[in-house]
Amino acid sequence: MPRPPVVAEYCHNLGMSRQSAPSLTRQAIVRTALTMVERDGYAAFTMPRLGDELGVRTASLYHHFRDRADILTEIARTIVLETDLPRIAPSAHWTEYFVTLAVNFRRTILRHRNAAPILLQFLPRDVLTPLYETAAQVLDQADELAPSSRILVLDGMDRIGLGSALLEAAASPEADGPFPNASAEAQPTLTAALTQNALDAEQLFVESIRAFLAGVLANQEARGG
């Protein structure tokens, strides 16, 4: 029996009020998910809430992603791919490539502070590994660096550069510089050292990277390598 015209029109409008699965794209889903994470935080992100944000039924999301983890993995990839690769003059010292790469990645991560837990859990190694191949090619041209020190540089940059940036992003945005909980009464030596520091957070980050790279060269020289 045909539906009455009013009911048919109502059903039609109801169906049109929510997007169908084919009208969605993976990119649109990921961008919306990232916006939600940045606005509401990682813990508040759920598939039903994402569906509501997009105006679709939750089941429609599974046409494009296996599960929540699959979306979070793609968010992590999207963030990493935002990082600008260094454009260093041929005359520049090889260490400048690594300092610039670390700074660029740090800035990318800090633009997405609320997504830092996603990067910690779903770091896209498939994206990072080709970047490290390029970095290894830079080191291959560094005559002063022994071949045996190349992995030390790459692994150290991964742990120090990437790790410290992620930890900084995960910290409270209100934290003012390093050791924000230090007390002059309880930690007088630490707070005295803090008063002597003239570097901001990014400058401290840069100097930490430079110190590590200089230490690799100094250690190599001390070993006679």
UniProtKB/TrEMBL annotation:
InterPro entries listed in its UniProt record: Homeodomain-like_sf (IPR009057), HTH-type_TetR-like_transc_reg (IPR050109), HTH_TetR (IPR001647), Tet_transcr_reg_TetR (IPR003012), Tet_transcr_reg_TetR-rel_C_sf (IPR036271)
Keyword Cytoplasm: no
Pfam families: TetR_N (PF00440)
Domain of life from the UniProt record: Bacteria
Transmembrane segments: none
Residue ranges annotated for the HTH tetR-type domain, each copy included: 23-83
DNA-binding region residue numbers: 46-65
GO biological process, one term: response to antibiotic
GO MF annotation: an example: DNA-binding transcription factor activity
Keywords, sorted A to Z: DNA-binding, Transcription, Transcription regulation
PANTHER family: HTH-TYPE TRANSCRIPTIONAL REGULATOR BETI, HTH-TYPE TRANSCRIPTIONAL REGULATOR RUTR
The name this protein goes by in its record: Regulatory protein TetR
